[in-house]
Amino acid sequence: RPDTFLFMTTAVNHVVGTIQPLKEIREILDSAGQKIYFMVDAGQAYGKMHLKVDDFGIDLMSISAHKIHGPQGVGALYVRKGIRLAQLIHGVKRVDNLQTGGISMALMAGFAKAVEITFADLDATIAKLRELSDYLLEKLEAKIDHIELNGAPGEGRAPHNINVSIDFIEGESVTVMLDMKGITVATGSACASQGLKPSYVLLAMGKNHVQSHGSMKFTLNKYITKEELNYTVDTLAEITDKLRKLSPLYNSLDKQEK
C-alpha cells in the first residue's frame, strides 16, 4: 500500500521457533515505491543466532534481558542512526527523551552482564542449544506416538525451541501435571491467560483446534542437561499415556490399530 511506512515482524516466531526470512522481507520492502522502515522483535533470536542489523537491513530492533538470563523488566531498542522517534510517555527526562522518570541502574547492569556472558562464545552456545533441541525431539518422537513437530525442522528453526502437537490430549492438563513434577512448558491453548483459545499461529499454519490445544512448547537454555531432558520426556510419556486412557477417541483408534 502506498501509505505503508513501517513493517514489523519477529526474527523468530515466538510459538513455533521458525526463523523468519528477514533478508527476503527487506528486499520486498526495498522494492516498494516509498521508504518503509523495518522493525524486528528479536526477543527469541537475540543470543540464539547471529543477528547483525546491517546484514538484514533492520532499522529498529527490540530485545529483552530475561530471554538471555538477565533480569526481568529491562530491555533495549536499537534505532538506526537518522531515525527519530516520538515520545509515548511524557514526564521528567533523566536519560533520554523516550524513557521518563527514574531508571534502574541495577537492571541495566544485570542486562549488560547477561550480554557479556551470552556473547562470550555465541557459536558454542548455538551449537549446544541445537544439540539439546535435536536430542529432545528425537526422544519425544521415539517415546510418544501420534506426535508432530510444529514449524520448520533443522536449521529453519531457532536452536532453543521445540514445539510439538500430541494427539488425543489437552495441553492444559499436561502443563498442570508437568508443573507438579517440576517441569514448565507452554501450550497452545494458553488457558490461564486467554480462555480456551487455540494458538492463532498454529491455526494459520493449518493446524486444527484439537492439534493446537494439544501443542507443547519447550524452550531450552545451555544450562539444561540431557539427563533433565530424559526426565522430561519420560514424565511426559507417562502423563500422555494416562490421559489417553481417558480419551474415547484414542481408545477407539487404539482398538482399530490392534
Ends distance: 56 Å
Can you count the beta strands? 8
CATH class descriptor of the largest domain: Alpha Beta
CATH superfamily of the largest domain: Aspartate Aminotransferase, domain 1
CATH architecture descriptor of the largest domain: Alpha-Beta Complex
Helix count equals: 10
Tell me, rounded to a whole number, the average pLDDT.
90
Strand residues, percent: 5-15%
Could you estimate the helical fraction of the residues in percent?
Answer: 25-40%
What count of structural domains? Answer: 2
Order of SSEs? EHEHEEHHEEHEHHHEHH
- Radius of gyration (CA) equals 21 Å
The chain-level structural class is alpha/beta
Describe the protein's architecture and organization.
The protein is an alpha/beta fold and 258 residues long. The chain has two domains: 115 residues, Aspartate Aminotransferase, domain 2 (3-Layer(aba) Sandwich), CATH 3.40.640; 137 residues, Aspartate Aminotransferase, domain 1 (Alpha-Beta Complex), CATH 3.90.1150.10. It is built from ten helices and eight strands. The strands form two sheets. Strands 1-2-3-4 form a four-stranded mixed beta sheet, with no helix packed on it. Strands 5-6-8-7 form a four-stranded antiparallel beta sheet. Strand 1, helix 1 and strand 2 form a beta-alpha-beta unit. Helix 5 crosses helix 9. The longest helix is centred in the middle third of the chain and has 22 residues. The radius of gyration is 21 Å and the shape is globular. It starts with 5 loop residues before the first strand and ends with a helix. The mean pLDDT is 90.
